[in-house]
Design brief:
- The protein is mainly beta.
- It is 9% helix and 37% strand.
- It contains 7 helices and 42 strands.
- The strands form 9 sheets. It has an 8-stranded mixed β-sheet, with helices on one face. Strands 1, 3, 4, 5, 8 and 9 form a 6-stranded mixed β-sheet that branches. Strands 27-28-31-30-29-32 form a 6-stranded antiparallel beta barrel.
Length: 729
Amino acid sequence: MATLVLGAIGTLVGGPLGGAIGATLGRGLDSMIIGSPSREGPRLKELAVSTSSYGQPIPALYGKVRAPGTIIWATDLKEQRESSGGGKGKPKTTTYSYSISLAVALSSRPIDRIGRIWADGNLLRGRGGDLKTGGTLRAYTGHADQVPDPLMAADIGPQCPAYRGCAYVVFEDLALEDFGNRIPALSFEVFAGTAAHMVKEIAAQHGMESHRAAFPAVEGFVHEGGTPAAVLTLVDRLRPLAAVSRGGQFSLDGLATPIGEIPTLPPAIAWEEGDFGQEDGTALARSSAEGNRLTALRYYDPARDYQPGLQRADGTEPGAARAVLEFPGTFSATNARSLLAQAASREQQRGETLAWRMSEIDPALGPGSIVRARGLSGLWQITGWEWRERGVELELVRFILPNGANRTGDAGTAWAPRDRLAVGTSLRVFELPWDGNGASGSIQRFAAIGAPTGRWSGAALYELAGNALVPLTESGPVRAVSGSLVVSLGASPGLRFDRSASMQVALEDHEAELEPATPNAIARGANRLLVGSEIVQFAQAEPVGDGVWELTGLLRGRGGTEIEALAGHLPGTLVTLLDDRLVELPATLALGEGSELAAIGSADPDPVVATLENGGRTRRPLFPVQPRVLATPEGGLILTWTRRARGGWSWLDEVEQPLVEQAEAYEVGLGDPDKPQRLWATPAPHLQLAPAEIAALSLLHPGQSLWVRQKGSFALSAPLHLTHIPASS
């Protein structure tokens, strides 16, 4: 039984989610239906989905982070059914696909925008904002003017909330085919201002001011809604903070580094009660906190798609007890390592503490101040004070300037899905000369379906019948190798292997490659290119850059395209590699001159239309070769030529090529081949014109061309020029 399991969207905020959670749809095969008139693909039996738990906290996001979000609304799965086949004894196949609409809450405070989206660890939305699968996406930033989503409002009704103050996204008809027809585990790249002032904002939410508490090293932070004490204590491990009471107002300050002249504490005083410190009014203590000393920091690294990063403090021995700080923030590797080094240094310093009692306190001194103590070396930092009946007691820790605390960190390497923009489909449709395989009357038409560099998953091919699209086939994700000439390709007589000749081709897919071939491989048909209407083979291929290739060792005019070789080609002429990546069209497809086909891919806003090139080329005879003209003593002409045969691309030891037409026949014409002034028919490769006939032609048509065409079973060949009619004397 097919099942659907909703991927759990956890409350752990920050890094990427693990592998997909859910059931995999099995594809069973029942031997009883093999050969039956219909088949069905996998189909879900239960279309309901689960939603999030009530009361699940929605975090507040600061800066740039990667967060999983929380589902707050979802529809049931929508099922689409598609049938194909079923004609001429073929089984009818029914396939099912599914989509869903859902809303995912991201942040309990407004954000600026969302960036990339991951689904099961793969990119669902790229940096360019393109959705990698079917469906639409709407993002709501959580500001005060936010309105309800129309799709949610249509489902919930007038009471649908606008979720002001809460940032969320809505997927409409999200295609689930790529995720096993289940909701994938989602995570979102969120940009929510700057995280440097998050301490100030969190403090303000709880009625506290803050001074000098900026945290410039942090690029992102996730506040999961804990108590301010818990959040700020966590921040304090990396960014020291001090709580200060000023004039009845509680404030949060960042511990300052010494600037200018460092003050010296007033002399300590002794109290007769003896309940405090030494007789001189001080108490110096040293303790070791090695067992709890911070030795590692776990964070999220934007250079690794926000995957968890780990930095270790210098001098950490393998196997030693470690205190790892799990920080829900985003840092660069260098900043993370530097913060860890500074934190480890501070914790080591705090192993030496000092108590100092005075009769009064200097108003300029307070928690965070850096001072000197009479009679003691080095610097000290005030961490707290307490008023007593007869004065004040200061609490201080040893302060060492963080020289050398900055470290260069290594983010390491991590697998990250390629962010490829979806690209549109390219289409070229053409007919090729018969290759000698199969029936000589079968038509060989092909579609070159491809795309430029980028994300492309194939396209559906259609025949244009009026305004209707008649489905033909699908290309699959394999791209045909196509491009265009960079520079002009000059004329060539063809039929000769020219090692010095070259051509430059710019491939539309820069990741495509062309391979060299040996002369033997070329003789067997390797490395064939359709350049315009000419077939060209090449021996060597060298990349030039930016998808441009230099091709050398050319064999021109292949497959009976010598006429096209003689014409040459201009820059921009279409070029297509003739290999197994082409889509062969049904021979029964009724296409003629001007027929059009269309292709539609996922990124094509409109059908991509191409007109059939070289229609009728498969069944068109090759034009004769080797024209010979002999003048008789009486003034007549004997015209001869040599026949060729379609599909006969090799010379078989002086054996004449077999005739692939129903009968051998030729027509000899005078003047324009499209509007001949005279025609002669002959069943053999020769024709004799009598002297009187030549005399009459010389008088009426001086200088006109005589040519010959082979008459095939389905078409006429191109004309071969034989001679010109002489002028009458």
